[in-house]
């Protein structure tokens, strides 16, 4: 519905709440939702106000196809500086020879590497999705599975961890051109050094997808895969706590191929406002404050795992080396779906996930993936995560007092406010 005052002159200076109260109200509701529940989705985080500001900046107006100094448009002198700062900070943070900061998201970062070094039909070896891998690591319905001949390794049934002997045996059998390590639901350290040995033994290249644990790497709390990998891909918005986006790091010898694969190979104009926000996120990730935050993410994950185990629940691998804990419900009457829905009722937001050797289909699943980055960002400490574990355990019972459990979650949210100084989206500022 057009407002009577929607003149061109008015629209040129009006704010969101004035022009589009419907969307402003929905954004306000989303802010309230984020504030009013305990966010435990392992791939989510609450980014910094400075990053939100950069994402909402005028750099969104700029076309800049190409790379700094080599653009197809005029007027790129400022965004060139922004992108150069982002590239330099990414390289410095992770000790990489080359960075491409243009991927719109993690899937595009992975696609960039595949396009850079693979031809359709080439063989690739990656962790299977149901053992903790990722869609873009060769799932049949994904472009990766359609374009390339993916083969998969899994985790050992005994330890639920990657078995490097099995990976080597599989690599010798498959003779892949590229080995992919990393994933989205693997709670233990990704040992890129061991994958490197295997890659060298079979003459393959190695790509590490550190989307989930890149914040821990930046903080020195997870081994850095960069020295061992030809390519490292990541998102920026998970543990790294930046804007929703991706990036690729690689060895200099692959720099030109990676850059060409992304543009003109795959994406068009880069999102320079998001690249500005990535630069800010990389700057923050190099601070002592960020290292301290990541230390708390890790400690909280250990406290969560210990709390769940002491309440009688099963945790995959008996714990975690990262920010991520996988609840294994195979030996309970709960499905992952039912658990997710119950936890939603008590204001804990999680996602169901298959666990290795799951007999249930992915839409139902027998696991729940739980991560600590977002709640840690709003100040949760180990005692708070002990309480979260107790709320989870209390919720997954037949006679759970849902109202009382929800009130315990709400008390934690009240104690640890999210974006306390942010006034929201409903106020119009001329
Ligand atoms: N969707 C992301 C995750 O939840 O891990 C991966 O792309």
SSE inventory with pairings:
Layout: H1 8-11, H2 16-19, H3 21-35, E1 38-39, H4 49-55, E2 66-67, E3 70-71, H5 77-94, E4 98-100, H6 106-117, E5 123-127, H7 143-147, E6 149-153, H8 164-174, E7 178-182, H9 192-202, E8 205-209, H10 214-218, E9 231-235, E10 246-250, H11 255-262, H12 272-285, H13 288-310, E11 324-328, H14 336-345, E12 348-349, E13 351-353, E14 367-371, H15 373-377, H16 382-395, H17 402-415
Parallel strand pairs: 1-12, 5-6, 5-7, 7-8, 8-9
Antiparallel strand pairs: 2-3, 4-10, 9-10, 11-14, 13-14
This protein binds D-serine (DSN).
D-serine (DSN) binds at residues 43, 106, 134, 184.
Write a short abstract of this structure.
The chain is an alpha/beta fold and 430 residues long. Helix content is 42%, strand content 13%. It has helices at residues 8-11, 16-19, 21-35, 49-55, 77-94, 106-117, 143-147, 164-174, 192-202, 214-218, 255-262, 272-285, 288-310, 336-345, 373-377, 382-395, 402-415, and strands at 38-39, 66-67, 70-71, 98-100, 123-127, 149-153, 178-182, 205-209, 231-235, 246-250, 324-328, 348-349, 351-353, 367-371.
Please describe what this structure looks like.
With 430 residues, this protein is of the alpha/beta class. The protein folds into 2 domains: 51-284, Type I PLP-dependent aspartate aminotransferase-like (Major domain) (Aspartate Aminotransferase, domain 2), CATH 3.40.640; 287-413, Aspartate Aminotransferase, domain 1 (Alpha-Beta Complex). The protein has helices at residues 8-11, 16-19, 21-35, 49-55, 77-94, 106-117, 143-147, 164-174, 192-202, 214-218, 255-262, 272-285, 288-310, 336-345, 373-377, 382-395, 402-415, and strands at 38-39, 66-67, 70-71, 98-100, 123-127, 149-153, 178-182, 205-209, 231-235, 246-250, 324-328, 348-349, 351-353, 367-371. The strands form 4 sheets. A 7-stranded mixed sheet has the order 4-10-9-8-7-5-6, sandwiched between helices. Strands 11-14-13 form a 3-stranded antiparallel sheet, with helices on one face. A two-stranded parallel ribbon has the order 1-12. Helix 7 (143-147) links the parallel strand 5 and strand 6 (149-153). Helix 6 packs across helix 11 (255-262), helix 8 runs parallel beside helix 9 and helix 16 (382-395) packs antiparallel against helix 17 (402-415). The longest helix has 23 residues, at 288-310. The chain is globular. The structure holds D-serine. D-serine binds next to loops. D-serine (DSN) binds next to loops.
